[in-house]
Automatic annotation (TrEMBL):
Protein name per the record: Hydroxymethylglutaryl-CoA lyase
Key word Aminoacyl-tRNA synthetase present: no
The species this protein was found in: Teichococcus wenyumeiae
PROSITE patterns per the UniProt record, alphabetical: PYR_CT
A UniProt-annotated Pfam family: HMGL-like
Domain Pyruvate carboxyltransferase residues, every copy: 3-271
């Protein structure tokens, strides 16, 4: 058994931090994550720098980490302009985001869901051959404005999105961290049953209410094998009031090790990286394994 851990701290973890993290440091964090065995890393986003100033150097981080062997560097893009900038920078793996919730979609990307789905279809049709594509469905479980999302609505959003292209990776995102394991298992199982093997699935969880690991385990039980996580438990959505950090990569790696599931991650190296990230000025770290294994977290 093997689970794929997708490191999202350099994007989702860094974006809410106020003090600018120097580009050299961002590159160093990506290099350290790669050295710890993480190969899927979301290194940044091509969004309006006025909205997310922390990630205004994504193109430079992408360029300076391109030498890392086997690195699959994905970047978040919210619209056609972001896609154009990402392609200009040489990105080979895009993560496009649409919200299941109308209110969150308007808050996040300033348009209604139907327009985002139409835009996504036009973007998909124009992508270069061989480009890898990830589709993130934000607020798959809960919206900070509308509350719990009905599964039938989420499935209908996916019907419309996957009509444009089925052979993509879909991230079911617990944007607020208010999902519970029963809900995660139920929606994940329905998605896998409804859309078949051509679509690949990832669970993206936050630990706002302490259910991040339980939700990861529920998604695994339902058949999902890919998981977003952030070293140090960093993160939080600027457009989802109250949402705190992503589930910590070191916590997920430790749990899967205890379950006998391979991840390819060097836990000691990851703990050192997480400890360094947790000390970033302006960061709000999370997770539990760093404290439990404090004697193994000393910086090298």
């Amino acid at each position: 058994m093997r689970a794929t851990l997708i490191e999202v701290a350099p994007r989702d973890g860094f974006q809410p931090i106020g003090p600018f993290i120097p580009t050299d440091d961002k590159v160093s964090f990506v290099e350290a994550a790669h050295a710890a065995g993480l190969r899927r890393i979301e290194i940044g986003s091509f969004v309006n720098p006025a909205a997310v100033p922390q990630l205004r150097d994504t193109a430079e981080v992408l360029r300076r980490t391109a030498h890392l062997e086997g690195l699959d560097a994905q970047v978040l893009v919210p619209n056609a302009r972001g896609v154009a900038l990402a392609l200009e920078a040489g990105a080979q793996h895009l993560a496009y985001v649409v919200s299941a919730s109308e209110a969150h979609n308007r808050s996040n990307v300033r348009r209604d869901v139907a327009t985002s789905i139409r835009d996504y279809g036009e973007i998909v049709a124009g992508l270069p051959a061989g480009l890898r594509l990830r589709l993130n469905l934000a607020t798959s479980f809960d919206c900070p404005f509308d509350g719990r999302m009905e599964e039938d609505l989420v499935l209908s959003r996916l019907d419309a999105l996957l009509a444009h292209r089925e052979d993509v990776e879909v991230g079911l995102c617990d944007t607020t961290g208010r999902a519970d394991p029963d809900h995660v298992f139920s929606l994940a199982a329905k998605c896998l049953a409804r859309f078949g093997a051509r679509t690949r699935w990832v669970f993206h969880g936050h630990d706002t209410y302490g259910l991040g690991l339980a939700n990861v385990a529920a998604a695994w039980r339902a058949g999902i094998t890919g998981f977003d996580a952030a070293f140090g438990g960093l993160g939080g959505c600027p457009f989802a009031p109250g949402a705190t950090g992503n589930v910590a990569t070191e916590d997920v790696a430790w749990m899967f090790r205890r379950m006998g599931v391979e991840t390819g991650v060097d836990l000691d190296a990851l703990l050192r990286l997480a400890t360094r990230a947790a000390a970033l000025p302006g960061a709000s770290p999370g997770g539990r394994v760093r404290a439990a294994l404090a004697d193994r977290c000393a910086a090298a």
